Amino acid sequence: MKSKSKRPKTGYNKRGAKDIREAADWCASQNIEEIECMVPDLAGVARGKIMPVRKFLQVGSMNLPLSIFYQTITGDFPDLEGIVGTVQSDTDVFLRPDFNTLAVVPWANDPTAQIIHDAFLPDGRPVEESPRQVLRRVLKLYHDKGWKPVIAPELEFYLVEKNIDPDYALKPPTGRSGRPETGRQGYSISAVNEFDALFEDMYEYSESQGLEIDTLIHESGVAQMEINLRHGDPLELADQVFMFKRTIKETALEHDIYATFMAKPMALEPGSAMHIHQSVLDAQTGNNLFSDPKTGEPTPAFFHFIAGQQKYMPAITSLLAPYVNSYRRLSRGSGAPVNTHWGYDNRTAGLRVPPSDAENRRLENRIPSSDANPYLAIAGVLATGYLGMIEANQPAAPVETDMSETPSHDMPYSLIQALIKMERSEPVAEILGQQFITAYSRVKQHEYETFMRTISPWEREFLLLSV
């Protein structure tokens, strides 16, 4: 366990600053020595630089090559022909700090802060390939209509025993009892208590960063947990998911285990999701646009929002399920929804309307995997809901039966299929940006091609001597 003696004061919970002057005061109050200057890439990985706080406060921004938004999860780069040239991809973009995201790094040995940046081209235009910009682009559409979307993510993950050889399957870790879990412990308090020390640190680290955790539960998988974050602004919540993923991974490492957001880390266990609850408010009155203010009944806008997600879900699936492994979770009989149906409190439907009063009426999208980039997943679902409201689409009838074995015919069942559907959807490309769509597709195709170079045990077992 790392020594905490040099860490910033854990009782100081403020996150964010108005400007660089307030940031300087905050850093001084926390005795900050270094600052991690981060930008989320297409995978949701933190890229950037670490610099002394004095230099950060002097320069106010930093440069990185545009290619950070074209890097695959393996660290490679796709063929950039037709998108950006090799020379252009290596030219600098300018990263400006969003002071609202300033927070401590509570697991660091020395007093350290972190701050998320936005990316801009030399002429001042935002970098369209940046996931944070993609989400900002969607939110502007809502803003221009006088609408304010509100989201709440639910994030599932596994705790696993340290695994340094990828050829071996993952195993559940040993808790305080000295024994690993051997059976399903859904919603078990004692199963969560097995990792009390880890979760106490997680709560302390989250609080010091201003991450607003609502609930912690044990999910149905072996050592599978779920964290629910409080509802709020979509960009702020995407930032919180981005920061929470770092937090729980670092906390787990301090306890000599791994935390993984891989969508399907173990073949015989359920996959991990990132369910996204969504509602839309009138920006002036604060009223929920999904409920009639007089009767409390659902409004046409609510059904249009559902219909848009039904219609355009196949086109954004690659944002919600971004890796080959994601589709192992989205398979028939896996327990995850594999359809675009909707229903009232029906968890086998891809779109669920949870029980609520009129003020809190919302839609839960249950398709996204926990491996999804939170900025892109949130941008995707809000974009489809927006299209439904603009086009006044009408949803199919709600389903009441078990749909877990009934996939929708138009839902992609592989990454390549999902990319094709995204590339062919002009409305989605217009909202998210054609430059982003092209870049994202090229990166994901390269990742798929890399995966296809690996021969699996299944192929050796069933094809080696049989074909």
From TrEMBL:
SMART domains from the UniProt entry: Gln-synt_C (SM01230)
Requisite cofactors: Mg(2+)
Domain named GS catalytic: residues: 131-467
First and last residue of the signal peptide: none
SUPFAM superfamilies: Glutamine synthetase, N-terminal domain (SSF54368), Glutamine synthetase/guanido kinase (SSF55931)
Keywords on record: Ligase, Magnesium
Family designation: Belongs to the glutamine synthetase family.
Official protein name in the record: Glutamine synthetase family protein
Source organism of the structure: Asticcacaulis machinosus
